[in-house]
Amino acid sequence: MAEVGEEITIKRKKQYGLCSKLWCLRCMNCCKADDVSILTSRNRRELSVKLMAKYQNAIQLNPEEIQVLDVLILLYTLDEKSWAYQYLYQCKLISNEESSRNDLEFYIPQLMNYLVFHEEMLNENISQFILTSCIHNFYFAQVVYWTLFSISAIVFDNQVTEFQKVRSYLQNLIKRMVLNHETNNEVKEQNDKIAEMISTYGTPSFDQHSMKCLILPEHIQLSKYKPLEQQESYDFMSCINFWNDIISISDKLKFADPKIISLRADLSLINTRLPANVYIPFVKDQLRHYTILNIVVQETKIFSTKERAPFYICVEVYNVEKEEGKSEDKRERKNSEFNVELTMLSDFKSQSSLAMSQFSTQSLGVAECYEIELSKKEDLKKPSNATLDFEKIGLEIFGEDSNQISERIRQQSPYCHFRSWRLVHLIVKTGDNLKQEQFALQLINQFQLIFQKESLPLKLTTYDIQSLGPSSGIMEMIKDAATIDSLKKKLNSIDKDITLSQFFQKYYAANLHKAQRNFCCSLAAYSLICYFLQIKDRHNGNILLHKSGKILHIDFGFFISISPGKGLEFEKNVPFKLLSEYIDVLGGTQSELFNLFRKLFFKGFVACQKHQDQILLLVKMMYSGHGYTLPCFSKGESAIHDLESRFNPPCSNDGEISVFTQSLINQSLDNWRAKWYDKFQYYFQGIFY
């Protein structure tokens, strides 16, 4: 163990080829470990200045609207930081605008990265600012806690390094927050029957058929959550204790047998302590103001692996303020399957000839959560001389509609009368470092904001991830979607000749054009970010199809400078995955939609190039702190330069950029490396192609 403040060394051996490893005689000390971690170097400041000094001249600090990124640049690069401290206090802590994130909450990972790895917790000005901000805003304090706790230990090359000063700071933070956020909750009088219904709901003792009382929002007594293994609890620790209990269940679940019975028993025990002052610690504003009422135990599913046991839960939540009529939630989620309005058409002509092929794959990692649900369903029998019922096939593939799930559970819930009631779907994971995944989603969110700022119809599906510890966290589960792998397996079990394009035509029928447009806009968007961020491991188990027709990607364990294969690297030099079956869905290479795809890719590229600083700064800040301990930075500084060069190809005008983007598309079309990676996944992982 090492403490921040001491010299922290995290070492790894030099990388050699296979022959060198086999024939090494260990006689020349050439295999001695090198210190390659930026965490331990004395030149973090020099590195920050080297990577980010050029942005200083572009900073224009307007007192009426301080840009958080500008202030962070000053922190990372200036020797004299007094100006930065002053402007830091003028930054907006939390924003309620989804179209723009110019608030410190969104950049907490970069701010904590600076405090821990650059200042090693020794900067009193930053420490005091964070403490003051946490006192001022409860939600900000919670995100700060989870972020600091997540980086209080680093797991690198199977070696754990704990930062004791971070732990000490967290203990001090908790003490201050307990004093400042403690409230005396008014005890409400409850009817005995109502109290019994509330306390037993979500447990085996609850009898739905005996519900004789109507539970109203005013009957809910929101108090501190009582943790399973502690007696004392405080308001600030209420949510923290709740999620610690959830994570502890996941930790011990891998040793349980049978797992599902153990999981449901533990969740039922937690339900006896709900409702309480607990919420989902996601940054998105529409969730953090909702209080958890109950965990729907019977909906729980486990996705077991050899070493881990992640599981799915759905929770009932409600908004206290909306029930009391104090405020309106103008951003209430609306379900709209087909919402893409396109005003752009293109006259681009494609001169590429595409080889027809079909691909399918199987899920790994996060994708398992979208696979197991399908594997438990009965396969449809291949019909003989009968028309296939694609509506039924779609139900088999996508599962029960999320709206129907919500309605079914709501009808069975004693809280069904709450007007703000909603259902949230989550995946709980332990044994995985979710900091990189969370960082990837932060970057993807920035790309989506860029597309919105430029009024482009490019569609990225962002989902929330919150790291809750060095090797644990929760993520939002995307409903009404299935992996391309699952879809192809189901179609293959019915008729091996059914293609993805035919599925679109039969399943979407009257809504085909809208589904194709959604597919086109999302395909162009993900093609762009896969190119810029070099997102790899793009087998069909990590690519999902939503019921609306849009495509989306999950599981970002390989991006920027790391890829699977350890030497083989099938996906190397593939700009992005673009198979002929995708083009067939759009209507072929000469179709209007494929021309639109080319136009959107070009427009999106120009937009990303225009706002590239929004991406590059976040990457450079994280690299200057975490260094090689985040796998995505395994190639060091060269990975940063490569990323920057992808935003800035040798083009002097839009015409040259247009030619360059079209060459990227042509290079990606049925690239043999992408096709062989699919085959590799099929033969070694059983993944369809």
UniProtKB/TrEMBL annotation:
InterPro entries: ARM-type_fold, Kinase-like_dom_sf, PI3/4_kinase, PI3/4_kinase_cat_dom, PI3/4_kinase_cat_sf, PI3K_accessory_dom. Keywords: Kinase, Transferase. CDD domains: PI4Kc_III. It comes from the Eukaryota. One of its GO terms (cellular component) is membrane. GO terms for biological process: phosphatidylinositol phosphate biosynthetic process; phosphatidylinositol-mediated signaling. It catalyses: a 1,2-diacyl-sn-glycero-3-phospho-(1D-myo-inositol) + ATP = a 1,2-diacyl-sn-glycero-3-phospho-(1D-myo-inositol 4-phosphate) + ADP + H(+). This is 1-phosphatidylinositol 4-kinase.
